[in-house]
Amino acid sequence: MKNIKTQGFVLIDVDVVALNNAGKNTQSNNDNAIATKSIRKNGRSYVYVSGQAWRYWWREALQKNAGWNMSPITREGKIAFTNADPFKYPDDDVFGYMRAAKDALLDENGDPVKDGRGNIKMTNVTVTRVSPLKNSAIISAASVRPEENWSSMSRQEGDAVPYEKQEYSAVMKGMFSLDLSMVGTFSNYDRTGFKNLSIFLQEEAIKNGSEQIEDPYILDGKGNPKKLVRLEKEIREKRVIDTIQALKTISGGAMQTNNMGDVTPKFIILATTNTGNHPFSHVVGNKGQRDDEVVFNFDGLVEVLKDYKYTFDGSVFIGRRTGFMDDIASQLETLKTMSDIPTIKVLSVNEAIDQYCEQMKSQIE
Question: Full-prediction pTM beyond 0.85?
Fold first, then answer.
């Protein structure tokens, strides 16, 4: 089983938005004041969208545009969990889950085991799965100071009702990693994050055509490879392609009624690597007296392409939307002629996604 991962880096370009709010603005004298999410680094402020919000947008795009049947959510008291069935529900597979539960302990005849008082003994059947899809927050590439927008509700009789919200314009960056070897592949080890399946689900999956393969990394007490349960290649391939293709149509964000913004990538890098290291985190930087100007770090991109050349599997795909960072177009073209880096494909954003998905088909076992 190959250890291969999709490494993705995106830039979005938004104007006058409030994509992810943080509740009441405690710095305002107005009771109806909402703050946007921001964080400080090196004494400067950066707006951001939480990683959880980005995943929510991603799920929505897969449900509405790719036709995914999403795992139902159950709430019991203060906890909530999905169905934890990655064979039936692709989002359980790609986004991971945790479901804590107990079931009757059965003997070799399938009958419940009872204690001395006649009570049925229970056994822990908690299942967890680490998400094959990991993503960062989406954060402004340069320092941003949100503007305070004062508005009012005044269509009713009497005094107007004032409210405030924070808005900003920014180029924002995000990165993600999708473990291609683990999508549609499940373990059943008694260890948190690795006990993906109940015995019932495992047996049902094998009956319905899933295969058992050897785990190349984990051995049992006798030194033999443990077994993984793997879905058919066609199903696994569709799930990973749907996940990447969803970036074309992803949408979301707070305040969309009055502050609609396009959160699809305007710049994207897609590559397959044989390590978990994400090499593209510093492709953009900032400069200026207030560090509020976004600049493309071309030298930094070339450096990681050279330094990690041995980790790339296949071509690296770079997509850019015309009208966004047009000044780097000629630099990106020079990457095609460099001999000491992987093969580079420079395309439009959607073409880069499509061609990367075609390459990915040949990489999935």
Answer: yes
